[in-house]
Amino acid sequence: MRSRSAVGRQSSSRRGSASCDRTSGGSGEDGSGELTRQCRLIHNTSKHVNEGFFGRSENIRAIDRRHSLEKSFEIGSVIGKGNFSTVRYAVRRKDEMKCALKEVDKRSLRGKWFFVENEVEVLAGSQHSNICLLIDAFQTDSFYYLFFEYAQDGDVFEVVRRKGRLEEREAQRVIQQTASALSYLHSNSIAHRDVKPENLLLFGNWKVKLCDFGLACTVLGPLSRVCGTPTYCAPEVVSQSGYGTAVDVWSLGVVLHVLLVGQAPFRSTDRNGLFKLITRGQLKLFQYPWTTISSNAKHLLRKMLTVDADIRLTANDVLEHPWIDT
Fold first, then answer.
1. Domain for residue 116, yes or no?
2. Can you give the pTM of this predicted structure?
3. H or E element: which one contains 62?
4. Is residue 33 part of a domain?
5. What residues contact 208, with CB distance under 8 A and at least 6 apart?
6. Domain enclosing residue 250, as ranges
C-alpha cells in the first residue's frame, strides 16, 4: 500500500451534537463503576481546525459489488457491530490468513467519508509492531470494505471485564506496548484521539495492537474538535482550549487506572458532571485496592493524568518510567 502526506482540512460548523460509532452495554457514565463499552463522541458543533486529513485514498480499490470480494476472501458471520459498521470474520483464500472485515455503510457517514479514507491512509503508512495491520481495502458506491488482521484473543476490554482487574505485570505489558505505538504516531505528528481498552487488540501472549484510527489526524496546530470516548477524553478536549498529541497519554492514563482497579478514575451520572470531574483531575488512590498497588504504578498514573498538558508525560516519558522500564 502506498502512503501520501496529509493535507489540512477545515470544516464549517453544522447542526447536531454528537454521533456514536460503537454501541454495546450502555454509556458507562452512570457513576456505578461498572465497566461497559461506550459510544464514541464526535461533536459536530465544535471547531474543526488544524486537522490534517488525507484526501481520497489511493489504497482503496473500487469494485462493482460486494460479491467480488468472495473471489479472494471467504466471508463468514458477524462478530461485531457499530452504528456505522458491521464486522465479520473472514479468511483470505490464498494463504488462509484470518481477517476481520469491517463493512462501513457510506450513507451513515453523512458526508464524513474522509474519516474512513484517512484511517486507511494512516494505517497504510504506519509500520509498527503494536499497530493493527490493514490487510486490504475496497469500496463500492455504497460501502467501504476494510480487511484487518484478526485478533484471536479479543480486546483488553473483555479481559478486564472478565477478570475484574489485571495484575500489575499484565497491566505493565499493555501500557508499554500501547505507549510504544503512541510514541511512533506522535513522532509523526499523528494523534489517535480514541485510546481505550476496546481499541487494544490481543494477539496471544499479551501481544497488544492499537486499532480503530477513525478519529486519527495529523496535528497541524492546536486542535478543537470535541471527539473521542467521554470517559477517556482529556481535560483540554472537553474544555475546547486547544490540544495536541498529549491527549493520547491522558487517555492511556485512564486505561491504566481501568487495568489496575477495574474502573475509570472519573465517573458521573451525566456527561456534564463527568466533564467537570475530568477538568479537575482529582485522583483518589488511598483506598483498597490502591493500597495493594506499587508506588511506582501510582506515580506513573498521576504523571499521565496531569491536567496541565504541558507538564504531562509524553509517550516517550512513559516508556522510560521506572514502572515500565524495569
1. no
2. 0.88
3. strand 61-62
4. no
5. 130, 156, 173, 174, 177, 178, 200, 201, 202
6. 156-320
